[in-house]
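Q: What would this chain look like folded?
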Amino acid sequence: MKKQTLKKLMGFATLLLSFSLFAQTIKVTGVVTEDGMPVPGINVSIKGEAKGTTTDFDGKYSIGGVSSKGVLVFSYLGLKTQEVAVNGRTVVNVAMLADSQTLDEVVIVGYGTSSKRELTGSVASISSKELVKSVASNPATLLQGKVSGIQVESSGGQPGGTANVFIRGVNSLSNASPLYIVDGVIVQNMDYVNPNDILDISVLKDAATAAIYGARAANGVILIKTNHGRKNQEMEVKYNARIGFDTPSKYLDFIDGEQYTKYLNQRFENDGDATRVTYNGVSTDWQKQNLKSGMIQDHGLSIQGGGETSSYFASVNYFKQDGILIGSGFRRLNARLNSEHNFRKLKITQTLGITEGNLKQNNWYGFDGTTAPTVALSNAANEGGFEAPSTVIQGPGGVNQFGLASLENNSITTRTLFGGLKFDYKITDNLSAGINFGLDYKNQNSFQFTPTYFMSTVDAVRNVNDKNDLTEYNKTTINLLVEPTLSYDKDFGKSKIGVVAGYTYFKENQRSSGIYGQGTPSNSIQVVSALPPSATNILLGENNTAGLISYFGRLNYNYDDRYLLSGTVRRDASSRFAKDNQSGYFPSISGAWNISKESFWKSDMINFLKLRTSYGVLGSYPDTFYPTQAVFLANQSNTSFGGALATGLAQTTLADPNLVWETTKTFDLGVDVTFLNNKMNFTADYYAKDIKDVLVAINVPSTLGVSLPVTRNAGTLINKGFEFDLSYQKTDGDFHYKVGTNFSFNLVAKAGDIPAPILGPAIDEDLRVVNRTVKGEAIGSFYGYKVEDKVNPLTGNFVRVDVNGDGVIDEKDITNIGNPTPDFTYGLTFGADYKNFDFSMAFVGVQGNEIYNVGKYYNMLWQDGGKLSSVLNSWTPTNTDTGIPKASVSDAAGNKEPSSFFVEDGSYLRLKNIEIGYNLPTKTLGMDFFKSLRVSFNVQNVFVLTKYSGYDPDVASTNGGRANLNSGVPGVRPTVNPLLGRGLDARTYPNARTFMLGLQASF
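A: My prediction, written as structure tokens:
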């Protein structure tokens, strides 16, 4: 009886409790407006819960299960997120406001975060939404045109190709790449970061923001934060797929076999040679054989979510791009696992990223021009199945670039592991301690095999290979980071201070080994163990270690949100320098005045106005590990004593033990303004950089007995510029749009006190050099003869200009004929959404730079290979009114010497990306298991407006061709310094036009 009574009482209590809980939840309805107009698509959710809804076309919403004491969150792109307490109401109407965006947005800065309202320095931020509009094998290219101050030069359309990234110009002659930091850990670059994993990117552009990274911050800092999930969120699964194809965006006009025959006969006549040739009936379009369409695909799957104290994010991504050029392609596989956990005062943040990439390159495209059209596509009688020029009708020499690329087997497989583990402990309400452990591991395997073949006895060095060649090279890089920090933040009435202090231990190790050899038993046997023992085998390998120890601190002071002051100092000590010069100090100071916070400020049009300024010193150290130590190699100076071989050492590199830090003194003056009820944002900056003790590898005379250049503090650089960003956004009923633009002007970008010209790479087998860096001129400027637009009608040769006016044309008239540095770069973006549709497009532009068209040099005046149709207008005795010199092999007048004839305007405006998307109404279609489902169509590299006659004006790489042919071994050629050969279109991979269909789904 007692048990039954107890059960009844418990049941009654449970009923009362259920009723009580039910009574505490209510249904809330309302209307959401902006400027008095209803706004559809507003996200309405219950704070702390996953439950939510959206407003309809009339701005109305209805949501049940809301606690009478709950809080509703209203959010929408371009509008300020609002949290509204219910307070027992069943009707809650909300008027949305335009998002102040640049003011309240939180951005990552060095060792912390800040709202843009409180920044005293110059920081640009890029959200993940802006990155994933395009698909690229190298994520760095996605930064192009996004914000001011960043210039990205890509390697054309090369899948997996590198890119030059410059922040506020070129600030070094040894390495102008910015410092990349992902989730607090220093990495070598962002090439293998999956763009879909990125949450935010901050670009630190001035000394005020970058000085806390001291010795490595002279070229700017790019901070990348990846997704770690969100707390109090149900598990969400997202699938993102894009698939399409690349197609060549441009073809050049080459002459065919019959025209080539006539061209050769005219050339014989011009040279006084009685030889004449008859067309052999062969007309191979090598351009069409080299360039074809290829598939591109990108698939990604991610899972994220979190509870009260933890969050997680996991993803996998597969990217594959076949490439439009034969023998090229790229494949990348990414995986990531991130998490964050809170245990009362302790927070643990974990990051893990794993990638594998496989790159195949065409090493012969653009090498000495292109193949003559009278060379047949194939020749079954020759080993390998190809032929090269061997008869007069095929020209005096040259190679078959298509055949060489088809026969060669090469790949670069890169595996990376990036991991970080950070512990943050809140000692008091104001004082926190943290320690960050980071690992950046990279293993790269380079493999190249060239089989035996026969194409021609002409130019037999490359047209005959009687022993197959094999190179295999492994390089492992391990970077370790240990970084403890202390931070203190406290408000004192109207005053607020923030202090950060820390210590960095950073260790780098590069270890490599490999071999180059010839003569495996068969072309089908492509393993190192099959190479025969031989004195011609070349063993490769290094073991390099460097360390960096740093102390840093920063103090921020804020008075009443009106007056802001910040000071930073960092001391770095690097093992790359000799003992007495290892340490460097890098301070900065900055301040800002929020004028619009003053009581006298009454403007209704300008909502926010802030002036800021900064000055500081940044640093840079050499790329090489031991620049102050001379190198001696064994077995380089052997001799014989008493009939016995005695090994000897030979010095191969000179060293300067007095090297010091390269320092960049930077001044910045900026303004941040918002207008029109925070709908328009404007930011502008003027900067001036004075770079001292510039580090550069200087070539030394061969008479000194060494073959490698010596690193020296060679002089100074001067860099000044002006930049601005402007954006406007508005919501008008169902229509929301945002338009933005940015411009970056290079006011002064030149070398200062350079003791001697610094030469760029050679462009041909005659070792002609075009680029020079000299005192008072732009870095990597083109030097040669200025020539008139018309050739001499009597001789058919260029008419050179007597620059110095001494009445004689000689080497003293060689002068600056072009500048690869643009006057300004810019970007234009537009994005809009209407109901379920969205649309975006992005333009990028470069203005005022020149390109030295090496392709024009080879395909018009070089003795070998095919020729552009322009040669049909070259000088002949009956065609004297022309700007193209006579065709000649002997070239007695030196028309092939570097001249302004090869320099072209490199300015361009490119519609880089256009995309249209549609969000399917999943509820209407009965697909409630989808949270969202979007389909899209995307076109990249839609068009480019330019006067440049080559494939594409986006020129970055000087590698390949002749640039690095005389160093290293096949498959492991050293990288040519891209800063000294800028604007040199030696073998730019043609850009593709890409068409893609996309599907984005969340569950």
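The radius of gyration is 32 Å.
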